[in-house]
């Protein structure tokens, strides 16, 4: 049935947006000022994207690296979103394991943001 994975795609996109927004706010707690923000963000995000199968396939990577990236939020988001495009292998397209990992990271981001975020600039 065409469009049957649309709910899974919407849930994955909304959960992914919440996860990465909460982590983005949480990472501001270690950014000292606006000038340092691009360097800190790029130094953390770009390597994460490369090792998480986003830009290049990592089938030949060591198994420990693939296991490590499976618990970070980028690879589960990518895999869950790709699943929604191939419903014949996965049914309705929901990947509850991946959604669970993203949910844990969203909670971590929210709790870190609540505890450490401040509107006042640090000196």
Structural class: mainly alpha
Number of helices, where a helix is a run of at least 4 consecutive DSSP H or I residues: 6
Distance between the termini: 57 Å
Cα radius of gyration in angstroms: 16 Å
Largest sheet report: none
Using the alpha-carbon principal axes, give the shape: globular
Describe what this molecule looks like in 3D.
The protein has 123 residues and is mainly alpha-helical. Helices cover 65% and strands 0% of the residues. Helix 4 packs antiparallel against helix 6 (96-116). The longest helix is centred in the first third of the chain and has 22 residues, at 6-27. It is globular. The model has no long low-confidence stretch (mean pLDDT 89).
Descriptors:
single chain; 123 residues; mainly alpha; 6 helices
Chain-wise SSE layout:
Blueprint: H1 6-27, H2 37-51, H3 63-70, H4 74-83, H5 87-90, H6 96-116
Helix pairs in contact: 1-6, 4-6
What's this model, at a glance?
This protein has helices at 6-27, 37-51, 63-70, 74-83, 87-90, 96-116. The protein has 123 residues and is mostly helical.
């Amino acid at each position: 049935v065409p469009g049957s994975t649309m709910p899974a795609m919407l849930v994955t996109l909304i959960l992914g947006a919440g996860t990465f927004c909460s982590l983005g706010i949480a990472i501001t707690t270690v950014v000292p000022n606006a000038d340092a923000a691009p360097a800190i963000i790029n130094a953390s995000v770009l390597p994460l994207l490369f090792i998480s199968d986003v830009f290049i396939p990592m089938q030949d990577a060591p198994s420990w690296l693939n296991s490590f990236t499976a618990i970070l939020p980028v690879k589960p988001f990518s895999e869950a979103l790709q699943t929604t495009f191939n419903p014949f292998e996965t049914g309705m397209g929901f990947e509850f394991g991946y959604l669970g990992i993203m949910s844990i990271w969203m909670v971590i981001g929210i709790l870190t943001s609540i505890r450490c975020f401040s509107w006042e600039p640090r000196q």
